[in-house]
Amino acid sequence: MKYTFCFFFLFCFVQLRGQDAAALRPIPESGSTLTKYWKWHAGDNPAWARQTINDQKWTSVDITKNVHYFPELSKNQIGWLRRPLKINSDLVNKPLCFYIIQSGAAEIYLDGQRLDTLGKVSVSPVQEVTEARPKMIPVSLADTNQHTLAVRLSYAKGHFHYRGSGKALLEVRVFESKHISSWVHLTTRRTSGFLYFSIGVFLIFSILHFSFYASNRQKKVSRTLGFTMFTFAVAFFFSSLENNLQSTGYQQLSELITVISTYVGLMLINVSLYQFLHQ
After folding, report:
1. What is the mean pLDDT of residues 219-236?
2. Which residues are paired to 170 by β-bridges?
């Protein structure tokens, strides 16, 4: 009986400790990504934003997966995510910043207090306003106690959704405020620079191949290569739009067009090779 009681006490202690998130240490310039310790509950209750709510029976989830891995969200169209949040003494009272990207519309809460919104949360597709673009939310914590970060998330039916989307349900990074601007600028410059460079290169090659075909109509492979290069330019163009569109539906439509254009381009490469070998 004594051993049974000790085992029960140890089990309860481990369960309670299992909900404590590791304290954020000095944050690197690239930020700390909050991917662990998230719990999910379908439905809607304003009380779920509070720190005192017992979420032991909530479902542990991987927020890096897309919305199709959350059938309860598709069914109920609204739900809550929660995770514990702690910092170490080096970060107390320092200006921090959340960098958040999500699918649908969301309200962000810390210890029951609403910090900000991304779009407008609603189960009605008419009233819901989705927000696919990232948002920066300043925050500061005055102690090393455990806090609760909660997200009220809606994904109303009626919006276009690409099932193969690589967009996570929720992405949350924490930065020191002094680092986030340089990180966003560097990341955006690298990504945009590569995409715009690729668009330009493929458009130039497309024009060249169409010019070759115009000068010699017998060379059908040049025409096919022209369409091939143009298709890849389209793919990179829509890829460049993905992080600049507000609507989640438009963002995922752009992602789908990128995928289709890429596969069409790959198919045209095979057609070009066939035409070159049989000309």
Report:
1. 94
2. 102
> Residues 178, 241, 136, CA angle at the centre, nearest 5°?
25
C-alpha neighbours within 13 Å on the C-beta side of residue 247 = 12
Residue with tokens 């400790």: 17
Q: Which two tokens stand for residue 3?
A: 């051993």
Chain mean pLDDT for the chain: 87
pLDDT digits (tens, 9 = 90+) for 163-219: 788 788 899 999 999 999 999 888 888 888 999 999 999 999 999 999 999 998 888
Can you tell me whether residue 75 is helix, strand or coil?
A: helix
Per residue, the 3-state secondary structure of 228-278, as one string, reads HHHHHHHHHHHHHHHHHCCCHHHHHHHHHHHHHHHHHHHHHHHHHHHHHHC
**Residue 233: burial class (beta carbons within 10 Å; 0-12, 13-18, 19+):** buried
Query: What single DSSP character describes residue 22?
Result: P
Residues 58, 12: contact at Cβ < 8 Å?
Answer: no
pLDDT for the residue 70:
85
Q: Are 40 and 70 in contact (CB under 8 A)?
A: yes
